Every structure is written in structure tokens, then in C-alpha cells.
TrEMBL record:
InterPro entries assigned to the protein according to its UniProt record, in alphabetical order: HDACs, His_deacetylse_dom, His_deacetylse_dom_sf, Ureohydrolase_dom_sf
Pfam family name, one: Hist_deacetyl
Species name: Trinickia dinghuensis
UniProt keyword Hydrolase, yes or no: yes
The protein, known as: Histone deacetylase family protein
Presence of the UniProt keyword Zinc in the record: yes
The organism's taxonomic lineage, starting at the top: Bacteria, Pseudomonadati, Pseudomonadota, Betaproteobacteria, Burkholderiales
PANTHER family named among the record's database cross-references: HISTONE DEACETYLASE 8, HISTONE DEACETYLASE HDAC1-RELATED
Length: 341
């Protein structure tokens, strides 16, 4: 299987607020390096750099004004004299009346985010583009006839909605790839999200559409991030009704229950009969993950890949979360090796 990877991800590295203090983000450069090292060590296949794409390729999944905001956010922040990372600290929640975009960067950061989990520094935009471009290059390989590809994206994307960042995500790499697939003529696409966290951003982007089926298996939002989406009764709206499938699972879920959900996802996928499948591949379902609550083991990831292969659809794997840095390489690549058979 071909891997698409850019070392430009290193330009992005941030902090997060945890237990009342600022510390290095769990979402750090070593994550992608570990996965790449494992791709090479196992001889999974060639590794290529992403092609470059115009930023208009991100519009569709995202709004034009959000893409513009992201591209310019660091410069607007730095123009105020600050050299620290940019983080939002105020949000337009229920009850606050204004829906206008603020003129000042501190207000814009809140307007275009869901949490304080996506810091922006001088290199963030370049890294974010390289990540989205990896997914775009991957989907173009599928259009060119490949049966599968692996976009080793960093930063991840599935928490980023049409007009917001959050949860370590900025551009929704999987959604951008799925959207391109449709624009290039596919009638139906599916996104299957197996990251521990609900893919709220991908859901947001495709919620009113019937051409892109979104399925997410994740920790029950009653007790897990992102808390405000991912319930089973979120099924899509308007023409999109019935094309959003959430499969929340309790804390402590191990492979037997996870596998049952995967097979349920497979049945829904078969009914949709997509031309292509994008898998949002998070491995924070691992038993040792520092921020999540499932109990998958290293060998289970081979089985996940095997099951996805049996769906019989050309598949682009897009890297999402996974924070036990010593293990994410083996676990992510096990999915790909399981798929290869
Ligand atoms: C892409 C992705 O996996 N994003 C996840 C973002 C999660 N952000 C909030 C995590 C809060 C978890 N707090 C648990 C602390 C355990 N010591
Ligand atoms: Zn996650």
C-alpha cells in the first residue's frame, strides 16, 4: 500500500490546557514520525510526498471564510505583538445573541472553534495544508485505479467542521478527500470513522447530504469528548436523513464489541454501495491510550483491517488520533497490514 507523507507536519506543534495547566499537546510531531518509521520497517510500500493543491480544494468541505481565517490567523495574532501560540478563550454558546464575525483575532478564534484544543503557531497553516494535501493525493490515487492508499496526515482532521477547528484539528482531511471524490464524479462515497472520538466535524460537513454516508464508532459522548455530538439519534437532516450513523460504545469497550459495531457499519456501507471509502483511522481506541477509554490490543488492529478489506470498496485510510506514541506506529500499520492480507 502506498503511503503519502510530508515532513512539513513538523512545522506544527502546540500546547494544550490540561488539569489546570499548560503542557505539551498529546498531538505532537513524534506521532507521525513513529507511524512513518513503522511503515518503513514493515515494508508496507512506497512513501511519496503529497502533491500541492490550491486552497480552493478545501472549500466545499469548509466555507471559504473559514479557510481564509485559518490561512491568516497566525499573522493577525502576531500583528498584535504576541509571540505565544494563539488559542481561543471565548465562544458563542447558547444564549449569546451575536452571529457576526468579530473583527479582532481573539474574537475570530472563538467564532471559528469548538474548544481550546487547536493552537495556532507560525507553522500551523503550512502543516495543515500538507496534511490535507496528503489526503487529496491519496484520493487521486484511488481515482487513478489504486485499491487502497494511506494518507499519513498530521495534524488530524475529523473534529474540524465546516466552519470550525477543535480537538487538535483544523482542516478535515477525510471530508476534503471525500468531497473531491464526489467532485471528480463519484456518485456515492462513505466515510467510516474508527477513531475513539466521535467525528463531529465530518458529521457536520455531510449532515444534510445523501451522497456521502458518514459512520462513526466512538466512545459514548455522554462521558467522552466531544460531549456535544455522537449520539445514536443523530441520523442526518433533510436529504441527508438516514445517511449519518453513530455507533456510540461504553467506556471499557474491547474488540468483541468493537467488531460487532464494525460489522454493523459494514451492513450500512453495503446498502449505500459507495464508489470509494475513506477511513478516518484513529488508534486512540488502544488499551494504553492516555486520553481514551477503549481496550483494543495491538493484534486487534490486524482484524480491523481485515474486516474493512471485506467491505470490498477502494479505500483511503486517513490518519486521525492515537496518543500512546510508542505504540501508534505498530497499531496503525497493523490495520493496513490486516487490510493487505
Ligand atoms: C483527533 C483526536 O483524537 N482528538 C482528540 C481531542 C481530545 N481533546 C480533549 C481530550 C481531553 C481528555 N482528557 C483526559 C485527560 C486524561 N488524563
Ligand atoms: Zn481521537
Amino acid at each position: 500500500m502506498l503511503t503519502i507523507y510530508s515532513s512539513d507536519h513538523r512545522f506544527h506543534h502546540g500546547v494544550e490546557l490540561k488539569d489546570g495547566a499548560v503542557s505539551e499537546s498529546f498531538e505532537k510531531p513524534a506521532r507521525a514520525e513513529t507511524v512513518l518509521a513503522r511503515v518503513m520497517a514493515t515494508g508496507l510500500g512506497d512513501v511519496v510526498s503529497p502533491k500541492s493543491y490550491d486552497r480552493s480544494s478545501y472549500v466545499g468541505a469548509h466555507s471559504e471564510r473559514y479557510v481564509q481565517f485559518l490561512a491568516g490567523a497566525w499573522n493577525e495574532w502576531a500583528a498584535t505583538g504576541r509571540t505565544c501560540q494563539a488559542l481561543p478563550l471565548v465562544w458563542p454558546v447558547r444564549g449569546l445573541p451575536s452571529t457576526e464575525v468579530p473583527q479582532f483575532i481573539d474574537g475570530k478564534l472563538g467564532f471559528y472553534s469548538m474548544d481550546a484544543g487547536s493552537p495556532i503557531n507560525a507553522g500551523t497553516w503550512d502543516a495543515v495544508c500538507s496534511s490535507a494535501n496528503s489526503a487529496l493525493t491519496g484520493i487521486d490515487r484511488l481515482s487513478g485505479g489504486a485499491r487502497s492508499a494511506f494518507a499519513l496526515c498530521r495534524p488530524p482532521g475529523h473534529h474540524a467542521g465546516r466552519e470550525y477547528m477543535g480537538g487538535y484539528c483544523y482542516l478535515n482531511n477525510a471530508a476534503i478527500a471525500a468531497q473531491r471524490c464526489i467532485e471528480q464524479g463519484a456518485k456515492r462515497v462513505a466515510v467510516l470513522d474508527v477513531d475513539f472520538h466521535h467525528g463531529n466535524g465530518t458529521q457536520d460537513i455531510f449532515y444534510d447530504r445523501s451522497d456521502v454516508l458518514f459512520i462513526s464508532i466512538h466512545g459514548d459522548p455522554a462521558v467522552s469528548f466531544p460531549y456535544f455530538s455522537g449520539h445514536a439519534d443523530e441520523r442526518g437532516v433533510g436529504p441527508g436523513e438516514g445517511f449519518n450513523l453513530n455507533l456510540p460504545l461504553p467506556k471499557g469497550t474491547a474488540m468483541s464489541e468493537f467488531e460487532r459495531a464494525l460489522l454493523q457499519a459494514g451492513a450500512a456501507l453495503a446498502r449505500h454501495a459507495p464508489d470509494a471509502l475513506v477511513v478516518s483511522l484513529g488508534v486512540d481506541t488502544f488499551e494504553g491510550d492516555p486520553i481514551s477509554h477503549f481496550r483494543l490490543r495491538t493484534a486487534d488492529y490486524l482484524r480491523v483491517g481485515e474486516i474493512v478489506e471485506r467491505f470490498g470498496v477502494p479505500t483511503l485510510f486517513v490518519m486521525e488520533g492515537g496518543y500512546m506514541v510508542d505504540e501508534i506506529g505498530v497499531n496503525a500499520v497493523n490495520v493496513l497490514l490486516g487490510f493487505e492480507g
